[in-house]
Structure formats: structure tokens, C-alpha cells
Amino acid sequence: MIKVIATTPYDDQKMGTGGLRKKTKVVMQPNYFENFMQAIFNTIGDLKGKTFVVGGDGRYFNDTAIQKLIKMAAANGVKKLIVGQNGFLSTPASSNILLKNKTDGGFVLSASHNPGGLDGDFGIKYANETGGQIPTKISDKIFENAKVLTEYKICDGPDVDLSKLGRQEVCGMEIEVIDPVDDYVAMMKGIFDFEALRKLFANGFTMRFDAMNAVTGPYARRIFEQELGAAKGSVINAKPLPDFGGLHPDPNMVHAKPLVDFMASPEATDFAAANDGDGDRNMILGKNFFVTPSDSLAIITDNYDKVPAYQKGIYGVAKSMPTSTAVERVASARHLDYYEVPTGWKYFVNLMDSNRITFSGEESFGTGSSHIREKDGIWAVLFWLSIIAATGKSVQEITEEFWHKYGRSYYVRFDFEGMPTEVGDKLMADLENRLPSLKGKVYGDYTVSEAAPFVYNDPVDHSSTKNGLIVKFTDGSRIVYRLSGTGSSGATLRVYIERYSKDQLNGDPLKMLTGLFNAAMEIAEVPERTGKHQADVVT
Ligand code: G16
Q1: pTM over 0.85
Q2: From 362, 483, 539, mutation site for ligand 1 pocket: most ligand atoms within 8 A of C-beta
Q3: Around Cβ 445, how many Cβ atoms within 10 Å?
Q4: Ligand 1 mean position to 14 CA, how many Å?
């Protein structure tokens, strides 16, 4: 039976760079999740004949939310849902299923790399038929609809058993429960040379993959241990847990520190990697060696011919604006089209759909290709393993050879977290106003050559987006400022600093960037406005 429930609207359901992200307790408020879903359904309009993919990263409240979503989709007239078994699907696996089945969209219940649990975060990512997250003009409409709706529809019935593979029916809607891993493995087999990778492990190569108690454990176990023959136990923290076992599933030097420490220990494996909560971010490590995500994108691009799916050639490559310029030099040397887009994977979708790019990546530990329309953590790991298998070189050797060829972009991101939203907004607004006056100013060894907001004009849909402020220096260095779009409360200021050197290749990044860091603090008046003299997180 379909019930129509009266509700009062919420005015805080604006999506950020990775969908809706809120404190779990906020989403658990009466009708909060229901209102957001109804706002989406109202925005889509006629749902008759439509099919969606549904899954999540297994975090706390996923099981409750997914049942609500199923019953609401049925009540709103959706034809069919394809759901991952037990409600599990990584973000890249979901994008694959969405595209493979030509469905009308999909929902991933995840706050990505944010911590989970009752005191953690919850989120909802909504993709449309492109396989990528919806463009801003649609999320804006959903936000407007969420602020005015007065009722939602839900099917009144028992919970669906999501452990049972196969077809079921809820209020006249079909549900197909699928194995979350099978299709993803098949896709990876179509891209990479699994035989060559098997040989690598058969010859004694060792790796450690940290799934951080989040969604990629079952994918990684199947691919690395069962398919490729990596030693049993190579995948650690492999069981998805509702609170990620207390871990913060953000694969970077800070939150994946145990893995970083392990790779600096005598027991270190030849290679290590970690993925985030929903499996779209990745971190790549060699023995006592860290590859920045910006370098990873550039190295993958430079080695595109090491992987069967790309051997015939690739279209161009794109990066998010704050990502370092390393890949720009590869694109130029390899005569590849090159694009710089605002932060947010959704900005790559038009470029992929129009065959302008094949690879894309972000400094925020995201790398991927047009095989799907989301970033893909395991894809990046398999790509690195393929480069290692083809060259017989270590992660460190591959990266250092890359620097010898192209020079090195020293790159560090400094995050200033937990400031009141008004402080963050005012800091950015005032800095934007001051930008024109910065040109020619000298900060220690650095002279400002240009300072302006970043504006992106999409070549496909002609929309225009402004995001972040860039200060460039006469030696080619740059500082980028932007506010995070994935926090669940308060504001996080991100300061991205980059300095390029053609021949000084073995410096310590933090030392190499000290002068620019001091300039960044002074230019944006960070200590005066935030009370902070150091960043909270440095990656
Ligand atoms: C999301 C987007 C990414 C983007 C990131 C930026 O990542 O999907 O494309 O780079 O947000 O985060 P912030 O705005 O905090 O810098 P994810 O992995 O959280 O979905």
C-alpha cells in the first residue's frame, strides 16, 4: 500500500562536490532522508519506466536508509531498482552497473572518505544516466524542491531481504539484487592484462592493500588475492564495518598512517595502496615512498600504452584546477588534449562523453578513466601494477625516472579545518577582492605575476563555474585557495601549494615549499582570521 506522509521541508539539503554530506544524526532526523529523496524524485518528474542502481559503502544507517529509498522509489512509480547484495556497492562499481545496464541513474549511500558511525557522517551521491554525478543546475533544483515540499510517498510494507540474490517485488516495483563484485571484476579484466599481473605475483612480488574497513575489501580480496595471486592477507582491514572500525577511511598520509609506517618498516612489501570509504579514492606507496596523486595522474598518462585498453591511443587528459601541473607537461609532450576543470569529478563527465578525454585525476586522491564516469580506486592500483609489471621497476624508480624526464612539481595541500562557515566565507570573499592588488607584490623570494579567481567554461554545455582563487608567481609556482565542498559542518580552507623544478629532484617537499607556505598565510591573512598558524592536516 502506498502512503502519502505530510512533512515539513528542510532548507539545508544543498549538495556539495560529492553529493549531500551531513552528520549521521542530522540525516537521522525525522523525515530528513525521506525529504531529500522525495525532492530528487520530484525533480526527475515522471518515474514510470525508470530504472536506478542502488548501493552504499555499508556505513552506519545505510541499512535503514536503503530500505526507505526502496519503498519510496516504489511508491513514486519507479519501474526497477538494481541493488547490490546487502546494500553494498562501491561508487565505481555503481557507475559501471549504471552504464552497463543503461539505467536512468543511481544512488550511492556514502559520505565517501568522511568517518562513519552514529557520530560520523552520512551522505547520498546521486548520478544520472551519464554514470556521473548530476550537474549543478540539477542539484540546485533539488535543493529548491527540498525547501518547499510538504509530503512524501512511501510504500507501506515489510523490509526487503537484500541478502537474497535475484528478483523480488515491492509495491509493484521490480528489485534485482546482484553480486556487487562480479561485474566490476569483469570490467577490470576487459581493461588490464590479468595474465601479466598474475605473472608478477607468481614471481614473488608483494603488496599490501588497506581497504580501511570500508567497501573495497571484497573487491580487493577477489581481484588481488583470488584473481591475481597476491599472498593471502595482502588485503587488510578487508571487512566493511558500519563505523569503519573507528578508522577515518581517507587514503592519505595522515589517515592511512599505519600503512605509510608499514611501508617505512623492514617488513615493507614491494607496493602498497589504500582506498577510501566508497572505493573511488586511492593512495599509491612504494617502499618508503609516496606518490602524490598529481604525479600519479601524470605517470599513468605517460604510461598509457602499458595497459591493453589504452594501447591504441587515448583522447586527452584532464585535471581539477588545484591538482599540480605535472600532467600538463605530459599532455604537451605526448600531444594530448588537455583540460583543467573545477574540483568535482562531475566536471569530467562532459569531456568524457564528447571523447575529449580518456584519463582524469584530482589532487584529492582521485584517478580514473572513461571506462566509467567516477574516479576508481582499484583501477588506479591495477594501473600502477601494470606499469610495474611492464617495466620491472619499483614505484620509486618509475616516479624518479618520470621526474628526470619532465622535472618535478613539489606539491603539498594544507587544510585548515573546523572554522565557522562565516569566517571561511569572509576570508575567501575578502581575498578575492584583494587579488587585483597582489600583482607585483614580493613575498620573500617570490613575486606575484598574476592573481585571479578560477573560471571554467564547459566546452560542451557552455555552463560557467567559478571555484577557487589562484595566485601565480614569476617562477611558475602557484598557491590555490578554496573551501572544501565535502565537509558535513563548518568550513575547511584548503591551500594547495606547488613549485616546479626542472633539476632539483630530491628535495623535501615541505622544505621546498616553506617560503610559499609563509606567503600563502600572509596573503590570505590566515592566522589573523582563523587563529591558526599551522594547518590541521597536511597531505
Ligand atoms: C568529492 C568529489 C571529488 C572532489 C572532492 C573534493 O570527492 O567527488 O571529485 O575532488 O569531493 O573534495 P573537497 O571539496 O572537500 O576538496 P569524494 O571522494 O568525497 O566523493
Answers
A1: yes
A2: 362
A3: 11
A4: 15
